[in-house]
């Protein structure tokens, strides 16, 4: 039985959360229902005063919270987890409206945050390291950083907010969450719910316009920015953070390769690869973006991909057997269309889907597979972040590894094959932060998540990821 709610939360009105209290504003903005293109609820645009008040409250809360024991913080997170569990149905319904993802996958996102919180709150405090000789003892301990600005994306607004809140708070920090203006609703409610557990100012949320993110990044009293989003915006965040030399963790875009060995079970593997490419309509940073299939099985494997992809039902969140929803926003919809237009203009072969995106009531795009476009094509070299993927044959192992690594991105990759030794050998040569063998990318809280090359700086989640929210201090004691 779910725990009872401590207070009633209105899921039809939305506010920023500053120092434990809801706060409105003169100016408002709206998210858009991607299935209908209709405006959703009003959300206040945070002002400069809101930013200053939130940062001040966060620093005050941090000074007290950082003095609490690790066990006290764990206990608070446990209470937050139990409270959050009582709102799973409400948050799922909210997520349906703002993201448009099918209900089963929206519910999965909301519930996965329970497991994420549960795993992290059971982590032990990082052990101090010690060196000792006849002259001195040196002890290195790990301290909280201070105030975290969490700038979150629109594709998984709850997972990627809770995924920053939990480790930041456990490490002893305060946090200000800035949700994407495309999907502000569920993240604002999660932070509102959190006020029933955490002291005022510890977990806050500010939504707003395109001035808000830069204001948080440049603020001298914020010690770390945790950003998830595009490579282009990540570079701007890093440049702006340099003015105050604050820490940054950046989880950015990817162009994730998938290598298919000739010994795979085609009937079993092709559906996994298709899901890896098209779940959430391709709007996943670690979605499969390029599929490299051994030449000996190229045609039958592509045919199996086509067969499975054409069975994926597209529709509204509560439609029966719906697997794919719309693109979440107009900006992304228009961007993805350019990949269809470029592939059509250059005469690439569409073996699934069509070369024409039909305009409709919502931002729906039928998934497409491009058969063997050139290595320098837009669909191969850039990340669509949408339901379109290229397939290419390969023969030489070293050559396909070089092709897989021929990108400035390096977030995740996957390798499928029965010869596990060969899979491991290939995986060890892939330049990405995560590699998945015989699975499409499924990041889990047990392991750090981050990227190589332009896919990011640092990493979060897992035991190692906790250290992103902490700073080492060495104490030298002479005898």
Automatic annotation (TrEMBL):
UniProt organism field: Endocarpon pusillum
Domain Aldehyde dehydrogenase positions: 26-471
Protein name according to UniProt: aldehyde dehydrogenase (NAD(+))
Catalysed conversion reaction: an aldehyde + NAD(+) + H2O = a carboxylate + NADH + 2 H(+)
Tagged with keyword Transmembrane helix: no
InterPro entries listed in its UniProt record: Ald_DH/histidinol_DH (IPR016161), Ald_DH_C (IPR016163), Ald_DH_CS_CYS (IPR016160), Ald_DH_CS_GLU (IPR029510), Ald_DH_N (IPR016162), Aldehyde_DH_dom (IPR015590), LUC3-like (IPR044086)
Swiss-Prot/TrEMBL keywords: Oxidoreductase
Active site: 251
GO molecular function per UniProt: aldehyde dehydrogenase (NAD+) activity
Family: Belongs to the aldehyde dehydrogenase family.
EC number assigned by the record: 1.2.1.3
TM spans (from-to): none
The UniProt record lists the keyword Acyltransferase: no
Superkingdom of the source species: Eukaryota
């Amino acid at each position: 039985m779910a725990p009872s709610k401590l207070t009633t939360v209105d899921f039809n009105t939305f506010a920023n959360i500053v120092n434990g209290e809801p706060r409105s504003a003169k100016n408002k903005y709206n998210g858009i229902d991607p299935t209908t293109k209709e405006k959703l609820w009003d959300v206040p645009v945070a002002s400069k005063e809101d930013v200053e008040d939130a940062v001040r409250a966060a620093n005050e809360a941090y000074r007290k919270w950082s003095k609490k024991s690790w066990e006290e913080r764990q206990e608070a997170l446990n209470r937050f987890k139990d409270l959050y569990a009582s709102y799973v149905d409400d948050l799922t319904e909210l997520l349906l409206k703002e993201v448009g993802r099918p209900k089963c996958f929206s519910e999965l996102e909301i519930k996965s945050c329970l497991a994420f919180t549960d795993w992290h709150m059971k982590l032990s405090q990082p052990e101090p390291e010690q060196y000792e000789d006849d002259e001195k003892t040196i002890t290195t301990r790990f301290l909280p950083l201070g105030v975290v600005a969490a700038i979150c994306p629109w594709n998984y607004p709850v997972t990627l907010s809770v995924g920053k809140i939990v480790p930041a708070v456990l490490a002893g920090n305060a946090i200000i969450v800035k949700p994407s203006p495309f999907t502000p609703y569920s993240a604002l409610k999660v932070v509102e719910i959190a006020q029933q557990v955490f002291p005022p100012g510890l977990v806050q949320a500010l939504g707003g316009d395109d001035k808000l993110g830069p204001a948080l990044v440049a603020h001298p009293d914020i010690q770390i920015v945790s950003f998830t989003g595009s490579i282009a915006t990540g570079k701007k965040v890093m440049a702006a953070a340099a003015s105050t030399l604050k820490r940054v963790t950046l989880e950015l875009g990817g162009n994730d390769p998938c290598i298919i060995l000739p010994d795979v079970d085609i009937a079993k593997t092709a559906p996994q690869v298709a899901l890896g490419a098209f779940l959430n309509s391709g709007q996943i940073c670690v979605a499969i973006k390029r599929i490299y299939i051994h030449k000996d099985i190229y045609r039958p494997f592509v045919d199996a991909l086509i067969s499975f992809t054409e069975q994926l039902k597209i529709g509204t969140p509560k439609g029966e057997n719906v697997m794919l929803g719309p693109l979440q926003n107009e900006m992304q919809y228009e961007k993805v269309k350019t990949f269809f237009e470029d592939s059509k203009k250059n005469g690439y072969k569409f073996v699934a889907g069509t070369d024409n995106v039909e305009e409709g009531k919502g931002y729906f795009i039928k998934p497409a597979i491009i058969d063997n476009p050139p290595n320098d094509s837009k669909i191969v070299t850039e990340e669509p972040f949408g339901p379109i993927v290229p397939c290419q044959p390969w023969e030489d192992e070293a050559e396909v590894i070089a092709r897989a690594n021929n990108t400035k991105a390096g977030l995740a990759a996957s390798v499928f094959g029965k010869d596990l030794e060969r899979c491991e050998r290939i995986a060890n040569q892939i330049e990405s932060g995560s590699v998945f063998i015989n699975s499409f990318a499924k990041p889990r809280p047990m392991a750090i998540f981050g990227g190589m090359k332009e896919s990011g700086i640092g990493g979060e989640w897992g035991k190692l990821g906790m250290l992103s929210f902490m700073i080492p201090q060495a104490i030298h004691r002479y005898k």
